[in-house]
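User: What would this chain look like folded?
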Amino acid sequence: MQQLLHRGAATVQHRTDEVLDASWDDLKSFLACARSKSFRNAAEDLQVTSTTLMRRIDRLEEKIGCKLFLRDQSGLTLSDEGAAMMGDVVEMERHAFNIFRRAAKSATDVAGTVRVAVTEGPGNFWILPRLIDFQKTYRKITVDLRCAMEQADVARLESDIAIQLEPPTNPDLIVAKLGRLHIYPFVSEAYQKLYGTPSSISEIGNHRIIKQNAPQVDDSAYARILGLPSLQGVVGIKTNSSIGVLYAVERGAGIGFLPTSSIALGAPLVAVDMDGFKHHADLWLTYHKEFRNSDRHKIVIDWLRKIFDPKIYPCFRDEFIHPNDLVPLMSSSRNSFGMAGYAAAGSM
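Assistant: Here's the prediction, encoded as structure tokens.
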């Protein structure tokens, strides 16, 4: 009897050791599959092959002793056991990120890299020109600026600091409103001479729209904001790039929806007044609370707050200011950091 008890205890201990020996790569793979509900999409996110990913999940299921996913043609669904495990693995991931975040912040050292993710337009046309002067002052800080419409997850270390269109809800993050980005329709001077401009939304069917398709831009937003049932036959060009929209509008391809500051910063465009149309999106600054004690991160955060300060730059105020009225208010910004010199700076 005693021998049986010892043998049973040894089996349990062996089983426990196997579970504790589960690879973190396997657990990360589990999270990726649970979030994307697809082996193929999760494999792309992790930059591995689908075969490698499925092998990791099989290995994890074998070690734990239960099925974590129900697999069918529609994709992956968490089993009851997988759903029960999800919260614990997410918490493990959070602690793992905290370890690396603390190691990276070097609180007493202003030297090092700070990763900033921002939507493409403000990143390329507002932050980047000012970043040149910033790096002249702070020679030991490297700002890794990522300008993209895909939202970076600061909590999961995809970026140290993010400026995005929707505020995150993670309690570990500090979130502050930077300012308001006002959006307005524009055309080139050449387009206006050839086709005129619509004075009301009902006339927009006689024109063409340059439409931006991007993860942080709701695909139905254009039609909804314009009060149209659909944009069928209205959209001339679709692009995922804010720079692409500006370029196409400057080249006379149609009507584009751009920040009200565009002509104030020197873009050779004409504001289109359609029944008092205007739209806005708030810009949110977000970073992990761990970076409050990092000197170099604090320097970059304070600098970002300053260059988006609505008291200094009226284009970021909550109240709408017509693009033409912004021109005299932002002459200093235009002279110092205007759009002159960009590839699409002049219309043809």
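The longest helix spans residues 80-105. If you want, I can go into more detail on any region.
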